[in-house]
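Milestone 3.1: sequence recovery, worked example.
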């Protein structure tokens, strides 16, 4: 009992090897074409996350100074969180005093973890002190946030802190 090829319904016939290879080649070309877009997306996401982290830390420090009627310090933390460091890409800590050294754990209000994939630089002081009025008097600063990878043309961001204590996003830095 032999069956002819034409006796089988057409929906039971599979793909040919040529059709399968063409689909795999097209899928491979699509993947190769889209990988740089995904890398740029990751870089933009890292820059945005860092801007949000800095704005949140600045806002928390300012509002805490106002509500608790005392000086509050925001600075990058050392590994043991006992003093302020210089690298704003590190963890950030909000401290309930005007201190940069000898910080006790009970004086730390909040710690913000670092963001991977970005470099953060800041002009001016290594800390920001908010007064009970919410001013960052004498601490006018600009944060430059740049992606660590330079193979794509992802722009960075700038965050400007006024002496009144408010932060705003500005044009991207030229140095990225």
């Amino acid at each position: 009992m032999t069956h002819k090829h034409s006796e089988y319904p057409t929906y039971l016939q599979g793909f040919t090897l040529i059709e399968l290879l063409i689909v795999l080649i097209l899928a491979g070309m699509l993947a190769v074409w889209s990988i740089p877009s995904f890398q740029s997306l990751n870089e933009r996401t890292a820059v945005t996350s860092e801007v949000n982290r800095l704005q949140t830390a600045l806002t928390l420090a300012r509002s805490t100074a106002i509500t608790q009627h005392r000086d509050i310090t925001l600075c990058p933390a050392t590994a043991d969180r006992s003093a302020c460091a210089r690298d704003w890409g590190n963890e950030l800590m909000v401290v309930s005093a005007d201190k940069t050294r000898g910080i006790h754990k009970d004086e730390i209000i909040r710690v913000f973890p670092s963001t991977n994939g970005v470099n953060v630089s800041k002009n001016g002081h290594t800390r920001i002190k908010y007064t009970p009025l919410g001013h960052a008097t004498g601490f006018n600063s600009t944060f430059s946030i740049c992606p660590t990878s330079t193979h794509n043309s992802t722009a960075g961001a700038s965050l400007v802190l006024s002496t009144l204590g408010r932060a705003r996003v500005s044009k991207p830095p030229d140095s990225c």
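The mean pLDDT is 85. The chain has one helix and eight strands.
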